[in-house]
Structure prediction request, 159 residues.
Amino acid sequence: MKKIILGMIIGIVIGFGLYWIFTHKVYDEAFYFQDGYEGCAYVVYNIEGTPQLEIEDDTIQYHFDEDGLVLTTSPEDFGWEGRENSGSHETKYFYVNENGEKIKEIPESEIGFVSLGSYSQDGRVQITRMSIPVGNTAKACDEKYEELEEKLDKKLKNS
Prediction:
């Protein structure tokens, strides 16, 4: 009788485990920068009229332009099961040539502290962004609001 109950408990635990694995998809991330790019790069979310982020081979693709920007209509939690449960995932950084082909993986030692956040002015959220320092790991990008706004103004005026 104990063996039957123990077998049922183990079966239930395995069943819930398999259910969780198949229903809680976790995506890896790949960041692609123009060859030689150094500085603060930004992913800016919730920008109307811009493309959604793409997922290829279970990996969210971030393709940065020459100014180090990715503008997307996607929300900041794109590809997450939820803010609390983003799960373990792999993140890779690459330099690409002018055709977008990978030419070199960027070691994580050349990537600074990546931060996700929003900032507001006059009590309303203006920009939700991910900041990524490339090359100079000591550089703090999460407070360079004026730099980001200048890049955004330039990019959005040319669109």
In short: The CA atoms of residues 38 and 135 lie 5 Å apart.
